[in-house]
Amino acid sequence: xxxxxDILAQLEFSREDLxxxxxxxxxxRTALFSAAAARKEAVVGKKVYFRGLVEFSNECSKxxxxxxIRHSNAKVVRYEAADNDILAACRFAWExxxxxxVLQSGELATSFFIDRVDSLVKKIKELSNGELGITLSCGxxxxxxxxxxxxxxxxxxxxxxxxxxxxxxxxxxPNNDHHSFxxxxxxxxxxxxxxxxVGTGVxxxxxxxxxxxxxxxxxxxxxxxxxxxxxxxYIEHEDTPLYKHRDLLKTKQERFDLGLRMVATxxxxxxxxxxxxxxxxxxxxxxxxxxxxxIGANIIMPNLTPSAFRKEYQLYExxxxxxxxxxxxxxxxxxxxxLAGSEIGYGEWGDSKHFENRRHD
Length: 361
Ligand code: SAH
Ligand code: SF4
Fold this sequence. Notes:
By secondary structure, this protein is an alpha/beta fold. The protein has helices spanning 4-8, 15-22, 26-43, 83-95, 111-127, 143-152, 166-171, 181-194, 211-223, 252-269, 279-284, 288-294, 307-310, 326-339, 353-360; strands at residues 47-57, 100-105, 133-137, 156-158, 197-200, 203-204, 228-233, 274-277, 299-300, 343-344.
């Protein structure tokens, strides 16, 4: 069997190597984390970039079996934040030199929704003299819609594959055309063709998921050549169908730790991409995102959603920062990032180096 240190020193990794890295414990786990930290610093540097997250609507036409704001959850009070509130949050991001914002919502494909996102993108560009970078995370849309939003100024898009194993995907989504694995893959292709920096990712610690699945997820990310990844632990929500399988889950602490090992392993596999420290890590461990930054992540998404709406955007239980307002978030983040030995890339878009490298190939 290969020595673990020899595995870490490689530039290419087999499925078996990846599984060993994901299972690393004790001294091997420490070695994995320090190799990933060193690789991160050498390739993308010490900077961490902020993306102000605005969860502008929880209206959703989908019924993903894991998600607290799924269409069929009648306990959720549906909201659409007013333009003024969304723009005020973006202005806060701009004035505090966050560099970029992420507009996230449930998935709708009505012309009203498409027009609204389009007009928000244009208004955010206007209010910031074109300075704020805009990432969208509004689900599966047509090529025409993705093109239109790109033309209006959005330049990154997040759409998680959730699991790259079609069988597992089918177990965590309703079995119908509106929740098709193929469609999701097609959307990732469309986004790339439209010119976006594309971000995807998976949930870690899902019921039925194996270490082999997670290793395959990492190989999938590499194969489709993504620019950015956001992945975090799956956290059960009691008002969802997947909750009935909670007995199959690893403990939250185990899912958290697996999340960190996924981040570190991905940093070694794809050294020049942007990797977000997922909010779901912070839901399990208050310093979770900072721990992820230490071992490979370089993006943090402080929540700028107007506080009145936060409790209605509970994708999973114990989602953090329920009653914080935006400036508290910034203060607490800054202190913690310093602890992690990083610098904040103020006022910079912090685009994925991988995207730049890909364009110059
Ligand atoms: N509607 C959009 C964006 C909002 S959901 C979309 O689905 O792409 C954003 C992400 O939240 C999803 O991609 C999913 O990975 C994550 N999520 C949803 N429910 C979750 C849960 N119970 N635990 C952890 N992450 C969850
Ligand atoms: Fe809707 Fe996204 Fe939740 Fe699925 S994961 S139900 S698309 S908000």
